């Protein structure tokens, strides 16, 4: 598989014929064919190198040899299922437990973040015996039937029994950075939703939220938000589900889980994890409390996931945890992420188009705006910047309700030099816009089509 | 990971503490710890060999070196997602297309059979704009919220808008082997359900059925059943979904897909596939028609599956197809499956407890009954047989509404010698029951607990 089998045009033609067109390509007008990758670098069919700023799934770097070795060794021994006893699953659950607050001590292994969120929904509903789910606006929790209902980003027309709360975005939202206590104010919006639901005789099973909303625009929750939301949700008999599918495993650097940024006095009742867990391999997980797990067991129905928790997936998961520690990738996220954020903040001073820079560790967003007073999202300019960066062999994409947020979620081995390269390129591209004619700025007609889709 | 990390008792203790108890173990009163496996053989922590009669997921044999090599080679090159162009996904889709009728030519790759069935549900509902689903009694289509509703085996209390049709079981069902045309008779039950639904103003999106119902008791559809069901479903504006998750990839020997046993004049509109596809690796797929895929694309919503269709999963899928061909595993299924069925039919003549032997290729069921006239299922005796076979180092399990069907779904490299070994053991165990005191037969109290759970 090392060599190109088909010429790129033929691959594209076959892809259009054989694969459902709902499955979209990056840069759909001129997609990239990637043959191999290593660390934070991608190589196309001509050997051209691209810097990868968005592959958060390839968490410790593309094709890390330790992961490949662990997978191959276990594949040669046993690739069975969880109905046989095996050490790997308990070793892995034990290692994950050590990263979490004590009460999150029971694990279910599945194959994807979507499967994890679906199971979290089943656990929450079984435990609380309530049905309603509160989610944040612009949230995305997966592609399954049950999750589309709780993903306003995909389907803003939610079914009657679900509510969505305002995104606690202090740049664009109803309460901004000048508010005295935006954490309390946004948490109160959730409380109001619960009260409204109660008035209609409905009951809340759960509040679902990414610990840092990603497709929502790389949002950092204001201080105290999660704790106060959890209080209201618990009061209503519901549970707090922290979706760490994009944000877990040390991406934020200072903590292993992004929900831990909210302080030690906040603990979710269910945590879902996925994308970075296997560095590309399909593995995901739900962690919960003994009480919730017991309620799920009490329904008497077996939960069997054919592939979930198999010895190979767990060996890969264990190897990934080892690499994070051995290579101090959390420390790297703090250092490189911090440096990148500083560089982008300098661009904000220099370029009026850069409205906001926010983030933590290697989870950073840079918002492109028409002007800083109105904060009007500059969707076309952001798309143009993405296209120009691709010409510079930098793969990056946009997020947020208006696709105006340049998002950074690179493999965790991203270096200081990479950060400087991308920042310098952005500086030059933005700088070029002022010295050239205005018409040279965004090719508006190609705007959205040319941008990278969300949810990587 | 080659060596035992914990003593078996400790593994079990940790498992009970760390893993949700809804995830059950085989032989829960005395689970087996498997350290390694090769071909059709499992090895426990003491190096004891077990013959594996049920691991249909490890389709070409446990830990086949060709699969491991293909996986490791691709893992070293690229483990990215389907938003980048890659040859493997189109190569693989092309190979799968060659096994299917021409009209099934568009593919969606996912991570599990459950994800495949959930997507099939979305495709069917989007295309038909209808909601109702007709499923067979005792069916199991997956563990997701959306699929529990269509899996009477898990939840017989279905929601109002769904119907289940009688299982076309000519041994226990309403029409039996002495009926002149059971295919037509059972198909008429589906037609009646559709008419009832229409009277209530409801509309049928789809009929979902495994091409050979597995947890339903290793059922072989009577001739003409599928074609006639498809006619009624199409007339109602619905689509026929063939769930080949357990039965595809040559298990039936004579054909690549079990639905092909129903003749060339039958073709489903959607086929879901999963368990054997990756020989243990999490990969699954939905194949459908251009019309259905186009309707799904037309809703304008992207379908992105983070891991689905990645280069490693497709490399593994391709390697598996090569092994099936190179090792003539379909031919082996015909020869060994045929021989095993003959041996079991001889046991039927000899032992009154063997009520029925049915199956095709390496998909075989042997039904244990109290007596042949009443056909009363002998659940406890079947469980006892499973326990006794475990003592003989043969791993097997039961299926069917009453857990009275001994099921054979071994890796496809199962040999003539393996078939003779298991048949001889069953012969001896059953024979022993007549010469010993009746009380020595099944330990009724341990009956169900000791049996192996379903849905492997």
Automatic annotation (TrEMBL), chains A, B:
GO terms for cellular component: mitochondrion. It holds the Pfam family Aminotran_3. The keyword Heme does not apply. Keywords: Pyridoxal phosphate. GO terms for molecular function: pyridoxal phosphate binding; transaminase activity. Its cofactor is pyridoxal 5'-phosphate. InterPro entries: Aminotrans_3 (IPR005814), Aminotrans_3_PPA_site (IPR049704), PyrdxlP-dep_Trfase (IPR015424), PyrdxlP-dep_Trfase_major (IPR015421), PyrdxlP-dep_Trfase_small (IPR015422). PANTHER family: 5-PHOSPHOHYDROXY-L-LYSINE PHOSPHO-LYASE, PTHR45688. Belongs to the class-III pyridoxal-phosphate-dependent aminotransferase family. This is 5-phosphohydroxy-L-lysine phospho-lyase-like. It comes from Sinocyclocheilus grahami (Dianchi golden-line fish).
